[in-house]
Amino acid sequence: xxxxxxxxxxxxxxxxxxxxxxxxxxxxxxxxxxxxxxxxxxxxxxxxxxxxxxxxxxxxxxxxxxxxxxxxxxxxxxxxxxxxxxxxxxxxxxxxxxxxxxxxxxxxxxxxxxxxxxxxxxxxxxxxxxxxxxxxxxxxxxxxxxxxxxxxxxxxxxxxxxxxxxxxxxxxxxxxxxxxxxxxxxxxxxxxxxxxxxxxxxxxxxxxxxxxxxxxxxxxxxxxxxxxxxxxxxxxxxxxxxxxxxxxxxxxxxxxxxxxxxxxxxxxxxxxxxxxxxxxxxxxxxxxxxxxxxxxxxxxxxxxxxxxxxxxxxxxxxxxxxxxxxxxxxxxxxxxxxxxxxxxxxxxxxxxxxxxxxxxxxxxxxxxxxxxxxxxxxxxxxxxxxxxxxxxxxxxxxxxxxxxxxxxxxxxxxxxxxxxxxxxxxxxxxxxxxxxxxxxxxxxxxxxxxxxxxxxxxxxxxxxxxxxxxxxxxxxx
Length: 477
Fold this sequence. Notes:
- This protein is an alpha+beta fold.
- Helices cover 39% and strands 25% of the residues.
- It has helices at 4-17, 21-28, 37-59, 63-77, 81-103, 107-119, 125-145, 149-162, 167-195, 199-212, 217-230; strands spanning 244-245, 256-259, 265-268, 286-291, 295-300, 304-308, 317-320, 328-333, 336-341, 345-347, 350-351, 355-358, 362-366, 370-375, 384-388, 393-394, 400-403, 407-411, 418-419, 427-432, 435-446, 449-457, 462-465, 468-475.
- The strands form three sheets. The protein has a 15-stranded mixed beta sheet that branches.
């Protein structure tokens, strides 16, 4: 009778013949056959077939699958010359891809690309140089967002020394030089406004500073202080939602005049402008986000989100509970969120007379028992998550509500807006004008079309990649 090892080799031979290379590789790598000469010869043939498939993947631009095949082939026959040549081609391809990403201004994607190369045992001088350039550029951009332009300029120049003749990098450096001088003037104006308690001037100057340095700590604090002083939210920076401060220089305790995007003035702090059921607007644009293996989410794109019963009239967040048809609003500002109560509500145990600031992990209670948890998972993003903590449910088959600002992150990290355990890369949805886009490192598919790094999506798109699958579904108002 044939030994068990011969039967295993016959299975491996058949798998190789019909092109099931992964199965064949598994058979010839088994402990009971590895010591036999026939198994070693067959392993070499399987390794060559895997190398051939890796070349096909590389020609198609799918370096991820090519690397997987090369790694598997090397375990079977690591000494083969063809594998060595193919590995060098893949290293060159990955370095070129990282350089292209970096010259496109995508530092994080370039670093992720090079880190994958390091995990595969590649640590060449060229790879280290490109990664050092990407890291310096990324740090410089972060310092610039904070308004620390002296540090940013130093880091930009370091990156330029490592990667000369990079036009986007040179532009970033020149912008940092210009912004440094402009910021010094604006900071002096902000200090004068703070000293004089001139809330209108403080908001206007803080807006200008944040347009240059979006994470400028002092400007954000000044803007929040002015926002609280006037008792109502001010507009977001960018994205077409910025309100324009009027020409009046209002003193402490006076109402602040703001021009709405449509052109009509509103007096912030005026009781008459508080939202109510009679003055309710139609719900904003929404869609459902289905994440395989994670759950479903209602995504609201508006800055003003209504909460109430699903019956009677349409609300953005319809809760199956004993609530009023319009019970409350959640309003987003560039710096945070407010809850505006139309009917009884509390925030962290304190009754809301008209409005209350929402911080990360705030607990909202509507009526007598509807408990909502408000989360800001990522401190660098204004997008928020609202979960129902009581036994009530939405009228939609979803797990929670996402209030999407500029970005929405799905990934394995705790800072993601939706945590997807086991994912090896993040998927980020972001707004670009009136369009919705998504990005992730490497290749993926949108509606069956191959994409790389980023792509425009619709509210009915299906997105697939290695280890993840998501779908968007439009939701009628």
